[in-house]
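Rather than argue in generalities, we have chosen a single entry, letters for residues, whole numbers for local backbone shapes, without further comment.
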Amino acid sequence: MTSFRNLNRRVFLRSTSAAAAVGFFASSSGSSLGQDSPNERPVFATIGLRNQGWTITDKSTKFADFAAFADVDARVLGENLQKLEKKTSKKAEGYSDYRKVLERKDIDAVMIATPDHWHTKVSVEAMLAGKDVYCEKPLTLTIDEGKLIEKIVKQTGRVFQVGTMQRTENELRFLTAIAIIRAGRIGEIRRVTCGIGGATASPVIPAIDVPDGLDWNTWLGPAPKVPYRALPEMRTGYGGGVPLYTNCHYAWRNWYEYSGGQMNDWGAHHVDIATWALGAGDTGPNKVTPVSYSLPVDYKDGYPTVGDQYNSPTKFEIHANMPGDIPLIITSEGDNGILFEGTNGRIFVNRGRLSGKPVEDLESNPLPEGAVEAVYGGPVSENHTANFIEGIVSRSQPISDVWSHNRMLETCHLANIAIRLGREINWDPVKREIVGDEQANAFLSRESRKGFEIDI
């Protein structure tokens, strides 16, 4: 048995190493890896390089060789090609058109870190081209996109990892929290609160000339054709070096045309862990209620009435009625993290801490041996990419599979629909449709702009 203090070291010492796993690629009868590769390491490509695109590439170079990058911003593409060569002493080809990457027979898998509105199109076409896929969260822009991805995964048999890395990383805090709950240390769960932070409104953002090197039409892709907008003030810190107020780089998260705001950004992380802990990975809520919310612009029939300001919620409190009538609260207030409240205690977990009396009690009453591994379904991988590569080798779905991800993300999508329409949403988790609300059901899908339909 072990306490939380010693858990991290013990689990990682017992972990399966993806670096060792790649040695089996050439001889793995169930995997295509190595068939067209010059060595036994898998060959990857990354589509969408800014910020998270480089982050997932950087931590994956330990396990894979990168043969190609694709990005519609020539400056971002060039900078990241240089970073890759500096890190690995190997050159990759750069493309402005991701389809050139998918045409290459030597590439085994792609990592996708485009803005959210591109995720489904690139993911589906990559799988149909015979590639395994690692795609950043949130996986989809709509609920019906999730159903399509599930269909194509099943049809093609490709391995698909979603980038909800809290399932694997963060020093096992989230895994340990779930293990504590499964061991009955907080009793029966009575309420779960996900604090995901709020967002800021923007001033009116004028239309200006598109920056040199950016293919704005392709960046928009499936989304409606609109002007490029930006103000002179620049963003600093993470994601810095671009306009603070824009409808493009980084700030696209604040626009429903390209994302789902904080609800889908941080919500995709914390609602995922909450849903997993509740054992609701194959179902979902039956009702989503917008208790309070604040939108930065006026809305009519679920759509913003202006197109020159951020339009996703700045503040909100959403109640989702989960199986067993357990309330899952998603709020912009309080600490960023997840609070689990039970009949015998409560625990709080985020990326920096795991706290509460049941956690303190682990020193004198440790979890059973293997409790964390049982949550994970086996030895915990070195990192999220390692788990993806282990899945590629075994031809099995990794820890963040598309089915459980889509089920939890449905809660976030429904929350956004409830906010946009200003009313409670009743959901049938079996049929996966909104009950008795034709207008709300229309938000389950979104039409792609002509010329950017999904090629199936």
